[in-house]
Each structure stands twice: as structure tokens, then as C-alpha cells.
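re: ur question from yesterday

yeah so i grabbed the chain u mentioned. its 112 aa long if i counted rite. heres the sequnce exactly as i have it in my notes:
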Amino acid sequence: MKAVLSGILFFLATGVHPAYAIDMTAGVVLREMPSDEFVVYVAGIVEGLAYARFRKDSVAAGRKVEDGMQCIRDWYHNNPKRILKVEEAFRQHDKYPPWVVLAAMVKKECGE
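ran it thru and got these C-alpha cells back, copy pasting raw so excuse formatting
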């Protein structure tokens, strides 16, 4: 009964029948999303990760700490080949959600 109700609510909220819904894996995003939307989508995830890092570091320190956030933003925005690296990572890890792939890339570059 819960599944039926969930399906109805999903349809009412989105206008999409649940049977047509697909998992938003890195592979699906890479294949299906137009390139201009892909760039904006990835930038949004990166900015979200940067802000989450700022909040985590600041709460732990009891004051504003922007170093981790700035590392993430610099890694993405100051790297001319960033989107090529993201595309390659999405190809290699196409079964994972995009934010998981990006979080792993961020962790490698900027720690936790």
C-alpha cells in the first residue's frame, strides 16, 4: 500500500509516472544531460560540497573556517580542465550518484 501511495504522490508532484523515473547515476547524467546543463549541474554540486565543508569546519572550530571551502572552490573554478576530469570520473564510476563521485574527487584534493 505504501508503494502505491508513494507512486501516486510522485506522479502528482512531478507529472512523471514512476515507471519512467530513472536513477540519476553519473553515467546517466553524463549521457543524457545536455553539456550546458551538465556544467551547471556539476558546479551546483561542487558549491554545495564547498558550503557543507564550510559549515562542518566552522561548527567544529566554533568560528568561521573557510580554508576547506576555498580549497574546493579553487580546485573546481581555477582548473581549466576541471570538466574534462569530472567527465572522465563520471565515465569510470558511472554506477554511482554524481555527488558521490564529486565528493571523492574533492576529498582527494582537499581532504575531509
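noticed a couple things. The chain is about 75% helix and 0% strand. also The mean pLDDT is 86.
anyway ttyl
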